[in-house]
Write a structure and sequence with these properties.
Shape: elongated
Mean pLDDT: 84
Structural class: alpha+beta
Distance between the termini: 17 Å
Strand content: 35-45%
Length: 112
């Protein structure tokens, strides 16, 4: 069973609920390739100013995927919530290729 994404929070506790049991740390990793067309369009946007919709969508997709994976892993431990969630974004590049990666981590818990 998966933890509902509404029960995932960046706070160290769950507001209005008591943590009954801490089940452990859960992590999820997501790596997205940023293709050459997105890179070129993003680079043009950097030159003329404004926001890059293609890069924003890639970031949103990575975040949603990671949080879904985090919810699944926490649910497999028997959790009904994840607290203290941290999202770390970074980029891997080299050889003319760019990859965006995101690591989500938090503490799987059972709430009363």
């Amino acid at each position: 069973m998966k933890v509902p994404t509404s029960n995932i929070t960046t706070t160290p506790d769950y507001p209005g609920r008591e943590i009954r049991e801490v089940l452990g740390i859960v992590t999820a990793e997501c790596v997205l390739g940023i293709n050459i067309f997105r890179d070129v369009l993003g680079g043009l946007r950097d030159l003329v100013g404004g926001r890059s919709g293609t890069h924003q969508k890639a970031l949103q997709q990575a975040r949603e995927t990671c949080l879904e994976d985090l919810a699944q892993k926490a649910g497999e431990l028997g959790a009904n919530a994840v607290v203290g969630v941290d999202l770390d974004y970074n980029e891997i590049s080299g050889g003319g290729k760019g990859m965006l990666f995101l690591v989500a981590s938090g503490t799987a818990v059972r709430l009363r």
